[in-house]
Known about the structure:
Elements: H1 2-13, H2 22-30, E1 35-38, H3 45-55, E2 59-63, H4 67-79, E3 84-87, H5 93-104, E4 110-113, H6 115-118, H7 121-129, E5 132-137, H8 152-155, H9 159-163, E6 169-173, H10 178-187, E7 194-197, E8 205-211, H11 217-228, E9 233-237, H12 241-253, E10 258-261, H13 267-279, E11 284-287, E12 300-305, H14 312-319, E13 329-335, H15 337-349, H16 354-371, H17 377-384, H18 397-400, E14 405-407, H19 409-421, H20 428-435, H21 441-446, H22 462-474, E15 478-480, E16 488-490, H23 495-498, E17 505-507, H24 515-523, H25 531-548, H26 552-555, H27 558-567, H28 572-575, H29 583-604, H30 610-620, H31 625-632, H32 636-648, H33 654-657, H34 662-675, H35 683-688, H36 695-705
Bound molecules: adenosine-5'-diphosphate (ADP) and zinc ion.
Amino acid sequence: MEDKALTILNSVFGYSEFRHHQKEIIKQVINGNDAVVLMPTGGGKSLCYQIPAMVRGGTGIVVSPLIALMQDQVVALQQLGVQAAFLNSTLSASTANDIEQQLLRGELDLLYVAPERLMTERFLSLLARASLALFAIDEAHCVSQWGHDFRPEYIQLSVLHQRFPNIPRIALTATADEPTRREIIQRLSLEKAHLFVSSFDRPNICYRISQTHSSNARDQLYRFILNEHENDAGIVYCLSRKKVEQTAQWLSAKGLTALPYHAGLPVDVRQANQQRFLTEEQVIIVATIAFGMGIDKPDVRFVAHLNLPKSIEAYYQETGRAGRDGQPANAWMMYGLQDVITLKKMMESSDADEAHKRIEHHKLQSMLGFSELTTCRRQALLKYFSDNLDKPCGNCDTCITPVETWDATEVAQKALSCVYKTNQRFGVNYLIDVLMGKEHARIKQFGHDKLSVYGIGKQTDAKQWRSIFRQLIARNLLAVDMEGFGNLLLTEQCRPVLRGEQTLMLRKESKQEKARQRGRKHNTNIKESDKTLWEALRACRKTLADEKGVPPYVIFHDAALMEMVERQPQTQQQFSKITGVGEKKLKAYADDFLKIIQQYSLSTASTPTDTVDETLQLLRSGLQVEAIAQQRNLKTTTIYNHLAQAIESGHVGLQQVVELSEADIKTIQNALSAFSDGSRKLKPVYDALDGTFDYHLLRCVQASLEVN
Ligand code: ADP
Ligand code: ZN
């Protein structure tokens, strides 16, 4: 049975190995046991029930709360040749009826159903007459009453266990926290289920947060998109509908395709915008948090926040929508002091009870602390979810550009005294004016120009003062009065600083967002010289997608196209090795893509010298090295020499010439750098590797390191 799972992974999905706990989870479910699966977004949860449903007899019933998500998954499965269907309110009665008949006849591997339909007596009795493989409960955190995605129908799902005690159940979620996990287990009666918890790290996402005065946040956003994501899909989150509209308009005026999405728009506009986001390739959605759940688009390359999210959970969930395909992605945020005040006011004016409000304020405070960190963001993020990362990650802004700190004890004392002397009744702007000794009527009217703090902060400019106040709030030395008008209050924690018993180190504001240059390198995986091929492959994918009426990523993910660019497969056999190419897609698409790659290879193969050229042509026509040697009546060593030259001049990729695993390549590279004496002699390297790799392999790897 487990062999069968692996065969399906290879031949249907086109993937070579299982990820995270997929293998154990699949085994568990195939054997008829229950499982609770916690895996981050993009971790690969779907396979955990799709494969068991295909291996076990009968149909796998998948409960999913979101219609869009259901349709996406079913379309993608059908593309792979899997018998999948969905039942929800968008179908006509007769189509729904057809699908029910297919279920009863045992023709479906997977059936996706909305929870409210599943729980009807009619449907349950239909299920009782069908042969069932398993129940998968997707987005299982929807049972949690405290969570933001609560679905009352989810609570009733425990009925499944009572009605079908022998059918294995698997509940899946990307929500990491402990209370939600407990609730899932308890409410769905999954006490006996095996629990699988994966790390919640999303290593391909680069976390970057900067602080700004709101007026130039938009400019910075635009520059970020232009520099790093000019041709990419992305999501921009804003706090209010108005800001969503304004930002979308502003970006559109700059020539980008930016569409608004918020609950205040008519349903058809919202749907049309979402549809364009899914089916076109370079659309930016500007949204309130209402957008995102159920958006399964794997190639969202960036998520930008123009405001502070209200909690670390929300930040993690929203940024998590970037890079589901595992390719590099950016989580970029820009926020200012005003956000804190606005959010606090919003929380205060909500009709939640006091206990709830306190939790919300606490969560916001944690988010603020996270934003002002001077150490690795990923470590802090994972720690927040009781996960652990031993070393700084190297892929967040504070790792890439370490934050400088400075001793701010004295200025902090000035700021705090100013709050105290003005009786904790004023907001940031007023306090800064007093500190800077501004002359205006209000200050005079209150007599604050007579205070000892008046004008004592002239050496510091207004921008710096804002940064200082923001950090004092983030560190809980000052609090924003929730009932008042954003006036600042002293907290218990500020006493030691005021009394001079504690030094306070604050972060220095960087002038520019320095992570940019580095971040950019992370994101352009495609070399300039390969851009033509990349664009041609993308265009081919788009044409096929339009013909079939599916989003481009359903044809192939970016990762697959990227591999095509790297390896430039020339034959069906070589094409079948690309990640994500299973039997069905090989048959359906290989020819179209191979044609483009072959054309490209030919068009770029004109510069090498004639004999190298000839060898290269033969290789591209699909011949192995031995066969080329035979045909040309040359020694294989000579052919390898030609190919090494071609590799070095960038006309062919290493992987197209030699069959070496990534690990082997790494080993050889290491040996080359450790033992080369600058002369390119390979004997010492060959010896150091105990003759494990032939000279021609070493030569080719060496050539690949010299590509110019
Ligand atoms: P989740 O539901 O956990 O967010 P998905 O199930 O949508 O994640 O999987 C995320 C992406 O990873 C999908 O494109 C999926 O095809 C791919 N994927 C899943 N498992 C594997 C695997 N073992 N090898 C390669 N890619 C995988
Ligand atoms: Zn880091």
